[in-house]
């Protein structure tokens, strides 16, 4: 297994540990969850970059990299519903989009067509990762003492700026998720319309 694919597989493991930690009652578990999720996000950037730079793009990577992204982000968003950090309707929309695109990729694979990620999908993934990290910082920074308060807690319109930023990023992630999913389904409509 090449290095980019190892990084992709590591994202599955990091996601599982992230979920265990975020629901634990360990000291600083929010901060540990933030570090774990950030590390998973870095692997998302590195696996694709290394695959392109070293020209070792494989069908495994083309299929599993987006799948690892979806599992990582959807797991975090579902956890946020359980922790009452995000409304369920937002997460339902995000998960529904990811399932629809995964279903489309499976349908394409059954027809011996590999659908790679598109630019809009990459922007969607980045917005989701930033939203999740912002929420994790929002619930963590209070335990970071004066540094956390100085950097993330100063008020903006009467609320710590990181709270407003996290809210903005949640909405942006939902918007980009809906747009990118709609565009992807529309551009590849021949795949499913031919079977209807």
Shape: globular
Helix content: over 70%
| CATH class annotation | Mainly Alpha
CATH fold-level name: Four Helix Bundle (Hemerythrin (Met), subunit A)
- What is the annotated CATH architecture? Up-down Bundle
Q: Write down the Rg.
A: 18 Å
Describe the strand arrangement of the main beta sheet, using strand numbers.
1-2
Number of helices: 8
Mean pLDDT: 91
Strand content: under 5%
Q: Report the order of strands and helices.
A: HHHHHHEEHH
Structural class: mainly alpha
Low-confidence stretches: none
Number of folding domains? Answer: 1
**Major sheet summary line:** 2 strands, antiparallel
How many strands in all?
2
Can you characterise this structure?
The protein has 196 residues and is mainly alpha-helical. It has a single domain (3-193), classed as Four Helix Bundle (Hemerythrin (Met), subunit A). It contains eight helices and two strands. It has helices at 3-22, 29-53, 59-82, 88-110, 119-140, 145-152, 161-187, 189-193, and strands at 155-156, 159-160. It is globular, with a radius of gyration of 18 Å.
Labels describing this entry:
8 helices; two-stranded antiparallel ribbon; 196 residues; Four Helix Bundle (Hemerythrin (Met), subunit A); globular; mainly alpha
Please describe the topology of this protein.
Blueprint: H1 3-22, H2 29-53, H3 59-82, H4 88-110, H5 119-140, H6 145-152, E1 155-156, E2 159-160, H7 161-187, H8 189-193
Antiparallel strand pairs: 1-2
């Amino acid at each position: 297994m090449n290095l980019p694919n190892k990084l992709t597989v590591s994202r599955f493991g990091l996601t599982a540990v992230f979920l265990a930690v975020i629901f634990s009652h360990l000291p600083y578990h929010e901060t540990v969850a933030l570090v774990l999720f950030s590390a998973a996000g870095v692997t998302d950037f590195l696996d694709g970059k290394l695959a392109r730079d070293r020209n070792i793009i494989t069908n495994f990577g083309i299929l599993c990299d987006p799948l690892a992204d979806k599992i990582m982000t959807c797991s975090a968003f579902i956890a946020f519903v359980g922790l009452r950090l995000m409304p369920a309707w937002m997460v339902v929309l995000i998960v529904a989009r990811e399932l629809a695109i995964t279903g489309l990729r499976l349908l394409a694979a059954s027809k011996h067509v590999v659908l790679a990620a598109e630019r809009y999908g990459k922007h969607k993934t980045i917005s989701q990762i930033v939203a999740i990290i912002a929420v994790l910082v929002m619930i963590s920074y209070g335990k970071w003492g004066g540094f956390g308060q100085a950097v993330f807690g100063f008020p903006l319109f009467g609320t710590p700026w990181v709270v407003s930023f996290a809210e903005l990023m949640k909405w942006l992630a939902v918007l980009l998720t809906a747009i990118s999913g709609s565009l992807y389904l529309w551009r590849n409509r021949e795949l499913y319309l031919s079977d209807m």
